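Work Package 3 (structural annotation) set out to generate three-dimensional models for the target panel prioritized at the project kickoff. During this period the team completed the workflow that converts sequence records into discrete structure tokens, so that structures can be stored uniformly alongside our sequence database. As a representative example, we reproduce one entry of 193 residues exactly as it appears in the project archive.
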Amino acid sequence: MTSSNAQSGNLPPGPILLLSKFLDIITLNKWRAYVPFGLTTPPDGYLSTQVPDLSSYYGTESSLLSYDQVPGGIWDFITADSTVLGDVTSPLSLFMVLILVLALRKVKHAVVPIFRGVGRKYGRATHGVEWEKANEERIVKFGEYVFRLIYHSLVSIYGIWYFRDKEWWQFLYGDNGSAACDSSQSCDAGGTK
């Protein structure tokens, strides 16, 4: 970090640092000249702290691989742990996040009307046509809530699957890698009965 705020430990919150890093990448560090009230003036400006590139933590050469250095094509590049996509502040990572957000918005735009139709159908079947007319807002919210439920469930399931072999899950497994206790038994944190 490059300011006296970093040396004194008086840093802005993480989201502010991340936002300033994104603005540094997008505007090539020129946005600070246009912020009023001395917020970006070192050493005491709230936004004067600049977050260095990830490569500065690893030395002069980054250990993260570019697309050209990954054998196997695009899928291996996206799924590998050691690519430049691991640095959330790299322009390529920001571009990939933008693509993911736009793709999720398209999916949501396509499936929420389907969920609203399901809500409308069952609302009409259980409460009648008058209820449907009087509760259009509830039907719209139902479609949104079903999308959120499915999205958060899938993200949670993927997270559990992805981190299934990490250290913090090892208390569930015995020495041979199988579960030490089944769901009908009580186990302590060490995996013993």
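The first helix runs from residue 4 to 8.
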